[in-house]
Each structure stands twice: as structure tokens, then as C-alpha cells.
Write a structure and sequence with these properties.
Blueprint lengths: L8 H10 L7 E4 L16 E4 L4 H7 L20 E7 L9 H10 E11 L5 H13 L11 H10 L1 E15 L2 H11 L7 H11 L2 E3 L5 E14 L4
Parallel strand pairs: 1-2, 1-3, 3-4
Antiparallel strand pairs: 4-7, 5-7, 6-7
Helix pairs in contact: 3-5, 6-7
Bound molecules: S-adenosylmethionine.
The site of S-adenosylmethionine has 14 residues, from loops.
Length: 231
Amino acid sequence: MRQHPGARAAEFQQIVERANLSAGMHVADVPAGGGYLRAYLPGHVVWSGHEPCTSFQAEVCASTPLAHQQLLPLPWHDHSIDVVISLAGVHHIEDKRALFSECLRVTKPGGMLALSDVAAHSDVASFLDQFVDAHNSTGHRGTYLDQRTLDELEEAGWTVDTHESVHYHWCFDDHVSMADFCRKLFDLRNTSDVTIQKAIEKRLGVDKLPSGRLGMRWSLMTITARKQGEH
Ligand SMILES: C[S@@+](CC[C@H](N)C(=O)[O-])C[C@H]1O[C@@H](n2cnc3c(N)ncnc32)[C@H](O)[C@@H]1O
């Protein structure tokens, strides 16, 4: 992410656009990874990130100790957050209900959850669970978003406002940068750049963009949900 800044810009922008943010709002980002979402927030929004993986924690907050930190409970007070944003993380959690309940607890009445992750049975899900699974040191099996996710959000007390498949590109200067980014992001081993490029072209698709750059097709399901009450 540091070597190819902006590669996932459209991914961050699509969730920020749907989060209806305005100045003074407190945004909770979970799991925050390296805290890269922060750069895409409008001005005067207060950002707090929470990240369970120790390898990311130093980037999220310099003062965070590198001790193991659980995902739950979330580290925010009841009714203290305007919008919870969760991008590309929950497919690692098989049972998401406790997270959805915790997000509701920390959100103010009338506040929002913007959740974006890989859709079940999508090309991206197959790419991750087949190609990445075969070449990554630990494998890859996700529990992706589907109707059950919407039902579990409602059961946790959220009102689902919108859900849609959002299609965009991860952007690179050329094929070499695209393969390098995917190799490092997904920890791909024992496979050549050409094999990575071919897998992306065959399974996801690649487009030449009007800017002259290379666009690797990617998509996520983005859900917005609201907590009952007056904001
Ligand atoms: C692709 S990163 C997304 C991070 C950030 N939201 C972003 O978009 O850059 C994947 C996230 O999944 C989380 N994760 C990985 N394995 C997990 C697990 N077993 N349980 C819960 N979260 C996990 C990591 O903490 C990491 O933040």
C-alpha cells in the first residue's frame, strides 16, 4: 500500500461517498489495517482506527502498544460514533453478529454503518479463494457478504438502507506494478509475475484507462445501515 499509493483510491472513495460525512463527525474505522482510509475523508472529520493485527498497529497509531489486541469489544464508548466504516475486513470473520452488535453499541442514535467487502460468488471471491488460496503462505478462505449479512445486520438492530455491488478499478502504471502490488498485498509465493498477470486478466479483467494507466477490475458489496433514533 505504501509502494503503490492510490492503487485502491476508488475503493476508499466509494465507501466515503456513501457514508454521508460532514465536518465534526467522529468516524470509527474497523478493522483499520494501516489506516489508509483516513487520507480519503473530508476535512474536519475526526478519525479513529481500531486494528487487531499487530503488524498494522504501529501504522494506525504510533502510541498503540504492539501487544495482541482483540477485535472485540470495540474501544469506543456507547453512542459516541457518528459513522462506523468497515472496509475489506469482515470476510475474515465467519460469524459477524458480535461485530455488528458492537458497531451498533458505539454508534449514536441516527448514526450510520458503511460496510464494504467482497460479495459471495463474485469474481473477486473466486480470485481470492482459488488463485490467492493456492499461492499464499496460509491459504485464503473468506466468508463473503450475501443476504445472510443483511439479515444479521437487521437482527443486530440495524436498518439496512442500501446495498449494491460497486465496480471500479485498482489502478497502476503498468502490468509490472499490478503484479508487484498483488504479490505483496496477498503474500503470493512461488509464482511468477506473468502467472499473476494472467490470473488477473483471466479471472478479473484489466482495462486501459482514459488516463493511460492500467485498471484491474475489482468490486465489493457496499451496505449502508442506520441506527434508529434522532441524530
Ligand atoms: C485488506 S485489510 C483491510 C484493512 C483496511 N480496512 C483497508 O481497507 O485497508 C484486511 C483486514 O482484515 C483483518 N483480519 C485479517 N484476519 C482477520 C481475522 N482472522 N479476524 C478478523 N480480522 C482479520 C486485518 O486486521 C486487516 O485489517
